[in-house]
Amino acid sequence: MHQLAATRPARQAVSRLFSLRDLGYRYPDGTPALAGIDLDIFAGDRLALVGQNGAGKTTLAKHLNGLLKPDQGEITYRGQPLAGAHLTQARLEIGLLFQDADDQLFCNSIREDVLFGPRNQGLDPAEAEAAAEAALADVDLLGDAERPPHTLSYGQRKRAALATLLAMQPEVLILDEPTANLDPRQEQLLLDLLLNYPGTLICITHNLLFAYELCQRAVVLAQGRVHHDDSLRELVAHQPSQREHGLDFSFRFAGDPPQPGQGRPAGSPANRQPPLLAMTGYSYRYPDGRQALRDLTFAIRRGDRLALVGENGAGKSTLAGCLAGLRLGLGNLTLDGRTITSRTRRELTRQAGLVFQDCADQLFCPSCFEEVAFGPRQLGWPSAAINAAVTDALQRVRLENFAERVPLHLSGGERKRLALAAVLALRPQILILDEPTAGLDPQGEELLLDILSKFAVTLLLISHDLHFIRRLTERTLVLHEGRLVQDYATDDFFADADLNSLNQLDYSYRSASELRLRELRRKAAEG
Amino acid sequence: MNIDPQATLVLSPLWLVPAALGIMLVATLALQALQRLVEQPLTELGAAAAGGSPLHRWEPRCKLAALLGFALCAVSLTSLWLVLAALLAAAGGQALSGLPWQRPWRRLQAISGFLVMLVVVLPLTATVRPGDILLQFAGLSGLAINLRGLELALLITGKAWTVALLAEPMLATAAPAATLAGLQQLGLPRRAGSLLLISHRYLFVFRDEAARMRIGMQARGFRPRPSWTSLHDLGNFFGMLLVRSYERTERVQQAMLARGYRGVLPQPEKISVLSADWLAAALVLALGLGLLLADRLAGG
Q1: Which comes out higher in pLDDT, residue A363 or B35?
Q2: What does DSSP assign to residue A274?
């Protein structure tokens, strides 16, 4: 079903906003990024721009805002090339939401950030203030307007970044991975906001469930070229096309949702040995005095496979840091029955392998080999053992031919697997994964799931991804505002109707979207 | 050339004990304060900008001109007693701002670490001039404390404390953007002001990034050691931090351009200057100039 833009039904020229003709672009190092792009975007379009990591989606979005100049071909907005005064005016009408909200929030208070655009639009102070107030109210951040961005939670920063655009009342809104790392409630809030947005919407996302709720049209990029331009409904229903471009998320539908009570009961001892890790009355306070974890009591036994869920800011990553010996709180923490103190927490760091949410925080060496060998070298392993550990770890994450590659030049999925290999090389007793699917395309997710499902290791998975939780874990801990509010079988977690009211984790819309997509797939298969 | 001091007082060496203990105490406190400042999260300028004190209500341009002018007068003083008066006035400003004393107190402790070195070194190294008074300890003929050197060290300490105390009412009682706008109205180039504002914002992001990367290294067993390998790893760490910062700089610039940035940050709404603002500025400047005048008259 390769339907390129040219085959789309002709529309009134007056409604055409963007027109891209034979657009090509190379990165400064000469790597081709976009080639032969022919695309029309019309007023009122709600378009999902999808494709694998590295397909050129963000690069294309930056062309639509005139941030990058094409090396070949041309791009027009409202019939005129994006240059000079027209470009200046166009930027005030086209809002671009960046992946990392910290790139977008460059002022010292949220209010200043939201006022930045309206002031550049030349609004008088009262009008600019009114626009900012309205946008902040829309994203439910009016009470936080004077706060500096770094004091907000991740989800709040993402909403604040959106407010900086909404205040400009843009005609076009381009969103680059808007749902990455958001908890279900924040995702639902964002979806509600965007469903009410009246203008033209272009959404770059790997989250096809989110895109399905929001967009009608799908443009698939592959290796810098437009490979499909059709309705999103058609794309979602047509598995071979998705498979061809690494967008097939049908692995998420494998098997029916389990029934409650079928899983292993929470906390049931697999054996009579002391737990691998146990916390009793454990609390942690950040250096600035904020309480992050409160009175946590639970145990992890060898072979356990746990999920840790909770809203953004619930304290999940902080708990992971404590379990990995990187933060030391108050209360009792034991490893194999031995109490961990400030003197012995290095042993905990050695036994608990933590893969960070943003793998860029974990990768700093000039080659993949060096990266994986870093940990074993720190522990003083002999060269032969280091080489064996690196080879084994790279094989396990299917990066065996990447030893000499530069980590900085790898794709998002490859970097995530490299970070995993760097941790696995240390042969940890427990593997802690913090949001492993963030920013991965469906193919990358499927590969990671396949790799992880083959590991016979104690696992703690921090994630909002229901499918990963369902496939990889048997027990779920629910954290809310630093407290452990549930510790039960994963199947019971999926059947927990009270979860929404309990800690604002509303997975219902994801489940509803999933059901609709299953139905669509079924009909397409029958038809 | 042999210069005779005015007097040489001989003291018992036992006086050295309390002096050494005092210096050690100040140095220890200063080190602890410095460590706390490094370990604790950065506090943003204007963190208490929402207060309701007269200093919060003072128009930023007038406030900056008055307090900077006063600071300039204070550092020009040569009399220890008048510096003490300026220090008391700065402490009064801090009290008037209604801001907690914790942060200025820590700041004073931290700079005292450097100042205590002056207090130790200057009395021992100041050139002896006619009229100087020297303290010598019985049995320690090589150790002479020049009281003029001690006075000079205390003078520098008093001035440094005065300026450090003024920083809080000057910078913490308005939002950074308002303070920078005030500075620009006083002549700071707009580009420099924009750079300062953005640097202040990204200091926190940079610090968080560096902390996460440091934790990432620690999680894989890294401990800094006196070895080439350790230096090499730290080199990789700083290199990667630099690359990430450079990439972020590019993205931030693009995000600014995407929202209509044309080289100049839009200015916050101007705050109207009331006659009370001018009057307050005139009073503070008059106080500073009065101290300076008294100093010159006394010196002359």
Answers
A1: A363
A2: P
- For residue B47, give how far its alpha carbon lies from the nearest alpha carbon of chain A (Å): 9
**Based on the number of CB atoms within 10 Å of its own CB, is A497 exposed (0-12), middle (13-18) or buried (19 or more)?**
exposed
Chain A hits for B272, CB-CB cut-off 8 Å, are: none
Q: Rg for chain B (alpha carbons), in Å?
A: 25
For Cα atoms A462, A466, A467, give the angle at the middle one, nearest 5 degrees: 110
Task: For the beta carbon of residue A156, count every other beta carbon within 10 angstroms.
Answer: 21
| Chain B partners within 8 Å of A117 (Cβ) | 259-260
Beta-bridge mates of residue A484 = A479
State chain A's mean pLDDT as an integer: 85
Q: Give the number of C-alpha atoms closer than 13 A to the C-alpha of residue A440, restricted to the C-beta side.
A: 24
Phi then psi for residue B16, to 5 deg, are: -65, -30
pLDDT tens-digit profile of A192-232? 889 989 999 999 988 888 888 899 999 999 889 998 888 88
The conformation of residue A441, written as its DSSP 8-state character, comes to -
Choose, out of B102, B213, B236, B259, the residue to mutate when testing the contact with A (most A CBs < 10 Å): B259
Q: Do A378 and B221 touch (CB under 8 A)?
A: yes
Percent of chain B residues topping a pLDDT of 70: 89
Pairing of strands A217-222, A46-51: parallel
Residues A282-286: contacts with CB within 8 Å, 24+ apart? A282/A322, A282/A329, A282/A330, A282/A331, A282/A332, A282/A333, A283/A329, A283/A330, A283/A331, A284/A315, A284/A318, A284/A319, A284/A322, A284/A327, A284/A329, A284/A330, A285/A329, A285/A330, A286/A318, A286/B41
For the segment A424-448, what is each residue's pLDDT rounded down to a tens digit? 999 999 999 998 888 788 888 888 8
Smallest Cα–Cα separation from A153: which of A140, A165, A169, A138? A140
Residue bearing the bigger pLDDT, B50 or A363? A363
Across the range A312-334, mean pLDDT stands at 90
Contact B229 A377 (CB under 8 A): yes
Q: How far is A479 from A263, CA to CA, in rounded Å?
A: 20
> A154 near A181, Cβ under 8 Å?
yes
For residues B96 and B169, is the Cβ–Cβ distance under 8 A? yes
Inter-chain residue contact A364 with B269, CB threshold 8 Å: no
Entry pTM: 0.78
Q: Does A98 touch chain B (CB under 8 A)?
A: yes
Q: Looking at the complex, does the CB of residue A360 fall below 8 Å from at least one CB of chain B?
A: yes
Hey, which residues 286-325 in chain A have their CB within 8 Å of chain B?
286-288, 321, 324
- Asked if the Cβ–Cβ distance from A165 to B259 is below 8 Å, we say yes
> CB atoms < 10 A from the CB of B255, how many?
24
Residue A18 has pLDDT above 50, yes or no: yes
Which is it for strands A277-285 and A330-335: parallel, antiparallel or unpaired?
antiparallel
Picking from A92, A109, A374, the nearest residue to B260 by CB comes out as: A92
Output the pLDDT for position A245: 67
Q: Count of CB atoms within 10 A of residue A18's CB?
A: 22
Subunit contact B251:A165, Cβ cutoff 8 A: no
Q: How close does chain A come to B95, measured CA to CA in Å?
A: 24
Å from B205 to nearest chain A CA?
7
SS3 A133: helix
Asked if A146 is an interface residue toward chain B (Cβ–Cβ < 8 A), one would say yes
Measured between beta carbons, which residues in chain B are less than 8 angstroms from residue A372? none
Distances (CA, A) of B230 to A378, B212, B217, B225: 9, 18, 11, 6
| Helices of type H across chain B | 16-39, 54-57, 60-75, 80-97, 102-125, 147-171, 176-185, 190-218, 228-258, 275-299
Contact B73, B292 (CB under 8 A): yes
State which amino acid sits at residue B241: L
Three-state SS for A14-32 is HHEEEEEEEEEEECCCCCE
